[in-house]
Structure formats: C-alpha cells, structure tokens
Amino acid sequence: MMDWSTLGAKLSLADKVGQLLMIGFEGKKPRPEVARLLSEGKAGGVILLARNFDDADEAAALIGDLQQLAAASPSGLPLLIAVDQEGGSVVRLTKGVTVFPGNMALGATGRPDLAYRAAFAVAGELAPLGINMNFAPVVDVNNNPRNPVIGVRSFGEDPRLVAEFGAEAVRGYQNGGVAAVAKHFPGHGDTTTDSHLGMPQIPHPLTRLEEVELVPFQRAITAGVAGIMTTHASFPAVEPDPGRPATLSTAALTGLLRQQLGFNGLIITDCLEMGGVANAFGTEQAAVLAVQAGADLALITHSYARQLAAHRMLVENVRRGLIAPCNIDEAVGRILRLKQELFCMENQPPDLDGNNRALAKEIAAAALTLVKNEAGLLPLNLGAEEELVLLSCQSGGVTLAEEGNGGMVGGFARALMLRHPLTRERKLSISPEAGEIDTTIRELLAKRPGLVLVATADAGLFPGQVALVKRVAATGLPVVVIALRTPYELAFFPEVKAFVAAYGFRAVTFDALASLLWGEFLPVGKLPVEIPGLYPAGHGLERF
Phi-psi category of 538—alpha, beta or left, where left has phi over 0 and alpha has psi -120 to 50? Predict the structure, then answer.
C-alpha cells in the first residue's frame, strides 16, 4: 500500500515536475512516446476528449491502460483523469452515460437542487470508469450576449444565481466521488473574444469584479471545490501588465485567488496551447510562467513535443533558481493530497437503470421557456394532412470548446414525427447564404406547410440565421422559432410571434420539446438572462 504521508519527500525533481503536468493525446491508445512519458513519470494527469473513445466501455479500458503505465513510473503515483463533462453543449462522453442538459437549462429551471442532483448523477457514472476529475462546473457569469464561447454553458447572468447553482454542482460532483473544477477564473463571461483564438480583455475595475465575476468563485471555494481553472484573459484591474493573462499572473493566481479569496485547492490552467497564451508566449514558456505565478497543474492537451519540452523547461528553471523549490513542493503537496483523497474512495457501479435518464428528462422539461406565443400557435393543432416543416441550422460545433460535438446532433425531426408523421426536415448550414435561403423560401411558398419550425443555434452570432428567420417570418406562414442555445437571438428578429428557449440540442431536450409543442405539459422555465430590449431575466409564460 502506498505511504502517501512520506511520498512527496521521496520524489526526485523530475518526478515532482511531472506531477505538475496534465497531458492529452490523439487516438484511442497512447502512442509509444506518450506511453513513455507516462511510464517515466513526466505527467501526473491525463485529460480525455471525445477523440479518445467511442463509449464508456472504451473509456474505462483506456483509463485502465493509462493507470498501468503510471504504476510503472518511478513514483508509481496514479493519474488524475479529467474530462469536460459539463452537460449540454460540452460533453466528451455521449454513449454509455446519461447526457444531461447544460448549465443555462439548469438556470432556467430556477431549482438549484437539480444542479446538485445532476452533478451527483454525472459523478456516479464517471467515477466507476476511472474518471476522477471533471472540469465543471462553468461558473462564468454570462452577461455579454455576444460571448462566443461561454453562452449556454453558463447558468445565467445573475452572479448570485450562478453562485448558488455552481456551489450545488460542486457539492454534487464531489459527493459523488469526482473532483470538481470551477472555471474560468477570474471570469470569462463578459467578453466577445474566444480565448481559444486570442486573449480577451476584461476592463472592469476590481469593485465590479468583486460584485459580479468573483462571486461564484468565492461561493465555490466555500463549498470546498477541489480545483479552479484559470482563463487566458487579461484583467488590467488585477494584473498591471496588459499583455499577461490571468493564467500567467502572480497577482491573479497568488494574490487574488490564494491570498484574497483564500483558495487552498488546485489551480489548474486552461490548455496552454490555446491562442490566448500560446500566440504571445509559446506553450512551453507559458507552463513555466504559470507555475511561477502560482498554478499547480499545467494543462497541455495536444502536442507531445510541447509536453516534453514543458517538463524539461520546468526542471531547468527550478535548477536555475527561477522557480523556488518550495513552490514546487507546495504544488506537489496539494496534488498528492487530492490524489490520496480520490484514490481512497470506493466507487459504486453507475446508475443506468433509468433513474438518471428520468432526472435528465425532468430537467430538460423544467427548463423549456415559452418566451412568446402572440399568435396562439402553441400548442400545435395540425390537421393530419398538414405538413410540418423543420428548418435546422447544422454545425459540427459552434465553439472550439465543443470538440466538433456541439452541433445539432439530429433527433428533433424524429421526436416530432412520433406525434405528427407528416413532418419534413430541411437542413441548412450554420449561417445560410442568400442562395440557400432563397431556395428554402421558394419551397415553403410552393408547398404552404401548416407550420414552420425554425431551430436556431446562437443566431445572433450568425447573420445567415437571422436572415433566414426574417425571411421565413415574412412569408406569412405560421412560424415558431426554437432557440437550441442561448435565447439572446430573439432581439434580432422580434417580429416572430412564437419563440421557445430550449437551451440545448441533445435527445432529451428534443423529446421534451416535442411534448411541450403538443401541449402535453405546461411551460415552467424562466429566462436566466435578459433578452436585450425585450424581456428581463425571469420572464416566461406559464400558459399557452
């Protein structure tokens, strides 16, 4: 049995630095060089993405292989195995587990207990597979309708709501045996730049950050969150160097997070290959700067060469006195304490007997928000000979965080057909061009369907979707718009008469939508964000 109490003092410098690196790799098996990295103890954790498995069984088998490689390393220390299983648009496992609605759907229910129950259920399915860390919940306050990367991943725009739901999710994950990681510190909600591509700047003064962005993180800390992930955004009120993102800022990580907010858990960087840091600093140098700033775990998700170089540069910087050995020891101590806690747990078999699926359905139904129904189009009352046309805008993932897994995955038309066999789906691109829209309008006017459903995906960020909705609404045909992501887009086409916010595009949401559209239950969801110029947060019709 491993003697955790004395292990840290026995590790070599190379082994200690290895514990500070979390790596990812392509494929369903680690390549020989990646296997060597693990067996040599040059990484203490692995992040798994959808590219690494097709289903839960493959994930479990892969994790067993990875842990065997780690057991053969000089330290024999087990790995932290992390995923981004946020629910909704960002999930890595979709087969063999329950895919729950995401954060904004939870926020729309108004019920923090559902955030706890969903997180506890997710943990109960992940832990038996060997996944011991979830990069969730997102606790960014999404108060910018033009945010291209957070949006529906946020619980909402009210820092108190986000804090309450986030804290419940933290407790749910960790009571279920999985370390929770709140992200993205100090807050990625109020920006129009995706940090995968560049470095956003959040220009607000510290007083505003304390009133909004930092509130959910403080609450997560109080709830005992195991880890906090940093963001590659610049915060001039915290870090005087405008070119240095929070991930690399001593003022942000050590000063604000450790000393002011009192966080004693793991500080984990977002991937250091993202443009927000890599463009200006390079991944390997960013790893050094992050550890110097106070990060415990440097995340490098893709390149073996960068992972190996980061390990080498960290060792060199410690030997040259540019990183204090005591800082390395403190970081390793935090990592070992968490590993000891996680690997001393006994995980129960996952609940796949239907209880989790029933909970996912309950959340999806409770989230649906009837925002407008001016023409009384809902509930649907189509004659057997009347055609229902579904226009859906397709993509392989609206944001890079979705790993190609965030597009409209199908299933809505099937759910509709169960209630109305004369349903036809026309798929359009994520931002349809004029010719594509013209062809669609000609078809609609020629066939004159009984109803047109337009399923949108963050239409406010894609001008072609806005143009499509406006053109369809102008035909005079009965039109219902379903927002499968954020509801902000209604501000771009306020002339539509019926609008439903669904906050998701997974099968469980499609089933709930079909039931709602035919009036099988009444809507109870409330907007967790304002639709600028139209409806405040908290709005939602409770009758048709």
Answer: left
Identify which of 400, 486, 417 has the alpha carbon closest to the alpha carbon of residue 453.
Answer: 417
How far is the C-alpha of 279 from the C-alpha of 257, rounded, in Å? 25
Q: Which of 184, 196, 232, 420 is catalytic?
A: 196
**Residue 468: other Cβ atoms inside 10 A:** 25
Residue 184 annotated as catalytic? no
The span from the CA of 296 to the CA of 316, in Å, is 17
Residue of 270, 296, 458, 511 marked active site:
270
Could you give the residue ranges of the DSSP H alpha helices within 271-394? 275-281, 283-293, 304-319, 325-343, 355-367
Average pLDDT over residues 396-408: 56
Nearest to 24 by CA among 403, 409, 320: 403
Whole-angstrom CA distances from 316 to 60, 294, 351 are 36, 17, 47
- In degrees and rounded to multiples of 5, residue 429 shows phi and psi of -75, 165
pLDDT, tens digit, 9 for 90 and up, residues 55-93: 999 999 999 999 999 999 999 999 999 999 999 999 999
415-436 pLDDT per residue, tens: 999 999 999 999 999 999 999 9
What is the rounded CA–CA span in Å between residue 213 and residue 189? 8
Listed in sequence order, the residues at least 6 apart from 351 whose beta carbon sits closer than 8 Å to its beta carbon are: 121, 124, 125
Residue 302 bears catalytic tag: no
The sheet with strand 388-394 has its strands ordered as 369-373, 498-501, 479-483, 451-456, 388-394, 423-429
Q: Cβ contacts of residue 308 below 8 Å, gap of 6+? A: 37, 42
CA distance 201 to 193: 8
In this structure, the chain runs to a length of: 544
DSSP summary character for residue 158: -
Phi, psi of 101 (to 5 degrees): -60, 155
Q: What is the DSSP letter of 493?
A: -
DSSP state of 400: G
Mean residue pLDDT of the chain comes to 93
Sequence-distant (6+) residues with CB within 8 A of 124 are 176, 177, 348, 350, 351, 356
Q: Has this prediction a pTM greater than 0.90?
A: yes
Please name which of 361, 227, 355, 381 lies closest in space to residue 299, comparing C-alpha atoms: 227
Q: Is residue 101 over pLDDT 70?
A: yes
Alpha helices in 56-141 (DSSP H): 56-71, 103-109, 112-126
Query: How many alpha carbons lie under 13 Å from residue 232 in its C-beta half-sphere?
Result: 28
Strand order across the beta sheet in which 266-268 lies: 266-268, 227-230, 179-185, 133-134, 80-83, 45-47, 21-23, 298-300
